[in-house]
Amino acid sequence: MKKILTTPKEIDRNERVLYAGNHYISIPEINVCDASIKSVNIVSLFNKALTEIYDDEYVFKPEFYVKEKKINIEKIECFKENYYISCFDVHLEEDINVIIRIYADLCEKGFVYEFESYKEIYIKLICNLKKLRLLRFNSHNIDFKKEFIIDKWLNNPAVNISSNSLSFAMAFGGDRDFNYEYYEDRLILNLKCKNKNAFYITMNSDVDGASTTLIHFKRKGFENIYLELKEWLCRKKIEYRRDLTIERILNENLFFNYFFAVGKDMESDKYISLTSRSHRYYVSGAFWERDSFLWSFPALKLVDIELYKRLLRDIIIVHSKNAGDHAHYIDGTVLYPGFELDEAASYFISVEDLEEYDREILKSLEFVLKRIEREYDESTMLYKTFLLPSDDPSEYPFVTIDNVILQRGFINLSRIYEKIGQEEKAELLKEKAEGIRIGIYKHLVKNIDGKDIFVWSCDKMGNFKLYNDPPGNLGLLPYYGFIDYRDEIFKNTIEYYYSERYRYYFKDARIKELACDHHPNTPSGLGLCGSILNPIRKDKAIEYVKLAVMDYGLLSESFDKDSTEAKTGVGFATGSGYLAMALYEALIKNADKEEKF
Fold it and tell me: What is the CATH code of the structural domain delimited by 244-596?
């Protein structure tokens, strides 16, 4: 086997962006220097991808005028209201101050560009709809036709966008005092603003749908759209008054995961799960089982339990036919082959949250189980993997964390079979789980420097590897119920890997988290999440989270060991879910349990 690593390119300098969106529409990149939007995307299950209107400069850009004189920005400050709504405090020439908010309707197919100024100004929103691409793993530019239309209902401008494989439309309007200019393929939206006013931009499958959605927005009004979203965010936020910095980090990551790791197909209204709807993430628009089942869904559950249960069931059914393959398209077909045991095992981690166990869901779970059983080794009682949690090839087939996750999964699945009266299957899974436990202690515990520790992986010939892959951090063993964190072997394990004896530990780094083969020079944000869930490392890890810049408060895959700024994996929505759920588990859920006792 050739050990070919597909490693991400390090970011030279990570630029801050804001973002907006709901499950239909994502706005992943809002420029913090001028409040312009650089891209807008929707889900296209037909194309197995996200469809994105984009431009390197801008897709929508506001300009400000007093009468006919253009007024430039002198200073701009950006912030998030209620941990999600993108806001800008803009200081213009002539002592004019404007507040800008960009937000999507909570449920409908459109978004709002809101402006607030107590001096009368005129705002032009320059529309630059010139480029279209599909986001699925990488970006794929596509040719398209653009047709400008005046809708009959409001006489509003609309644009129909079509290619050989897709078609959708956008409609444009304002709350009041709105007009537009269109010439030489250039659309400019105009608005007079004193106090508050807003542009509406709506999308749908065709011009009729986009324009009727625009009518709905005008009837509803931007103030009600804003209030509905604000009240929802207030209800859903997680309070942690002991530390407001942690509360901010937790909730910003929580909501980014909720809106950017989940999508709703405009054509079918089917929900999908994916790594990220932000093109800033280097493998956006695709599905990883680990990322969704282990990281994103536990955070989603904290926000909307009904959506979580629906998605859990739907995603198990859609993706189980290719359980364990490295990466899937959003429709469940294989994008990137290569078996990963932890990904296959991840289907079983939350199965007890399913509301019913009908034939379809049981068939899907049994299909996953059969795929996993192909990797069973009777002599060790362990299961093999081809790729690691970092998605890179494994030197030895039996990996500790993968088998630990599987053991937890087998225990969970056995309880389901007990509930539905299939005792024989339940007992078999319990025996398998116990066999894994025995196999791990027999083959994956070695004496290093006079102390027993868990090694990373081994084969049947006695070879083993000392390694700790951050997406599958060995510090997670207590989290999955495999061992008590006070156990000597576990304490020895953490002591070894977080020391100068281990090559991916940086003793002089500001944040002492582990790097790995996948990003050898930069500590891991995912490893930091694992440390939060590790009682031995928890307190230090939480201090590190407060110290880290990463993706300006959002989790990044890795970060610079000195500046703490993101170096790989920005716009990483499922990773944000991991950070949010880890903070909740460590600081709130477990604290609640302790108070009860």
Answer: 1.50.10.10
Q: Architecture of 17-236 per CATH?
A: Distorted Sandwich (2.70)
Identify any residues that bridge with 134 across adjacent strands, giving them in sequence order: 51, 140
- Cβ(87)–Cβ(81) under 8 Å? yes
Task: Calculate the CA 492 to chain-centre distance.
Answer: 33
User: What is the 8-class DSSP label of residue 287?
Assistant: B
- Domain spans of the chain? 17-236, 244-596
Instruction: Output phi, psi for 352, to 5 deg.
Output: -70, -10
| Residues whose CB falls within 8 Å of the CB of residue 54, separated by 6 or more in sequence, listed in order | 38, 39, 40, 131, 132, 133, 279
Inter-residue contact 64 to 121 (CB < 8 Å): yes
- Tell me the C-alpha distance between 528 and 66, whole Å: 50
Q: pLDDT tens for residues 511-523?
A: 999 999 999 999 9
Distance CA 495, CA 264 (A): 45
Mean pLDDT, all residues of the chain: 97
Which of 365, 350, 337 lies closest to 295 in space, CA to CA?
A: 350
User: What gap in Å lies between CA 574 and CA 558, rounded to an integer?
Assistant: 14
- pLDDT above 70 for 92: yes
- Determine the pLDDT at residue 3: 75
pTM beyond cutoff 0.90: yes
**Burial (CB count <10 Å: 0-12, 13-18, 19+), residue 410:** buried
- Sequence-distant (6+) residues with CB within 8 A of 592 are none
The rounded distance, in Å, linking the Cα atoms of 15 and 597 is: 46
Distance separating alpha carbons of residues 560 and 565, to the nearest angstrom: 5
Q: Which pairing describes strands 131-136 and 49-54: parallel, antiparallel, or unpaired?
A: antiparallel
Which residue from 594, 581, 404, 392 is spatially nearest to 489, judged by alpha carbons?
Answer: 404
Beta bridge partners of 447: 452
Asked whether 193 and 200 are in contact (CB, 8 A), the reply is no
Mention every residue, 6+ apart, whose C-beta is less than 8 A from residue 260.
Answer: 19, 21, 26, 28, 276, 277, 278, 571, 573, 576
